[in-house]
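Box 3.1. Reading complex inputs
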Amino acid sequence: YSISGNDLKWKKNHLTYRIENYSPDMSVAEIEQSIDKALQVWAKVTPLRFSKVSSDPDIKVLFGGQYHGDSYPFDGPDGTLAHAFAPGPGIGGDAHFDEDELFTFRSQKGYVLFLVAAHEFGHSLGLSHSQDPGALMFPVYTFHDPDTFVLPQDDVSGIQSLYGPNPEGPVDPGVTRPTTPDACDSDLVLDAVTTLRGEMYFFKGRFLWRRPSQSDLPQQSLIANFWRGAPVNIDAAFENPESDRVFLFKDRQVWAFRGYDPVSGYPKSISTFGLPMTVRKIDAALYDEQSGKILFFAGNMQYRYDEAKKTMDEGFPKRIDLTFPDIPGKVTAAFEYRGFAYIYSGRVMFEYSMGSKRLFRLLDNNYFLTC
Amino acid sequence: LCVPLPQRTNLDEQFAEKYLRTFFNFKEENGSVVRRGISPLSQKLREMQEFFGLEITGRLDSDTLKMMSKPRCGVPDIKTSA
């Protein structure tokens, strides 16, 4: 997290706000509810309290187009969505929203006003942009379901560095605050790994690391920034280069994307890949480019599905250790790369020759994440 | 196989310069002499790439342009007196 400046904070805990005008995109009630909810995101974790007034407020909320009364004109649809000013008199603390944007109450068809406002009020209270891609104060907009939104830990640490914690204790004690995984954490257990058009994607929680083909520096981002509508905390993933599709699995459902574009008709049941009803979820999936067959790992069993024949191969399912005797525990992720199968089990990764199924090396979990 | 880098259009470069001016306090070098070494633009690109966790190339590559095109907040990413 980052703060605007050492003493750029409010010197009082009770702040007032006024909504100067309204966007035609949403009803007055929806706008007022979104603004109040956005302020409460910060009130929940600090001593700060907000009340709506008609007299001269600390924070003015207004919707404006292009030139709207300050030195920072908006730029029409998309691009810059809103901005806000650090705490202070006059324009200090005010939050401006670009009226050329389509703001929504919770739909992904536009920008969810609650999310944009919660971010801007972070600035109104003294926070700057965070470099943590999972933080609310990260500069780029990312959709989250407003009904399940929880302020991430990075933002909580930031605002509490200015105002301290909520003296009334955590408002929602049962909630665990989202954190951003560290690729070089030796305890990191990946959810899934896949290739896509020559790049590698490593999944963990709502995040992924993307490793471009010509670089060994993985770039962390949110899954939602790549695949709109994709699940988080996935179980498995694989790419079928023949059909230029990537499949993401979670529980008994599978999502398909052509590159980054959703394939219509998905999500579907994993029975699509011949997996029986007894399989409640899979742990990993690997596409064998040579044979065009998909290897699924579930518990201590492996299933091999023939994509061309649309059938499960004879002799499957069978125990994993009959093929990969060295893997002691549960498979957590798997992918094929240049003729080798990389099978993750907890904190280690086994490198097998796809052809001979001979174990070559035992590697660290984050071998491809260049730590 | 030598893969040619995608051509940047002039519009891309103008867009990038404006982005860096708005969010990373990029100032063009004025006056007749430009210091040798990394150009101010390349330096700012590196700063922006580091901020967003992109590969730090100092070049306007496709990942950088893609990040610049994402909808975002209008407050600068580095502190400016404004």
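In summary: DSSP finds three helices and one strand in chain B.
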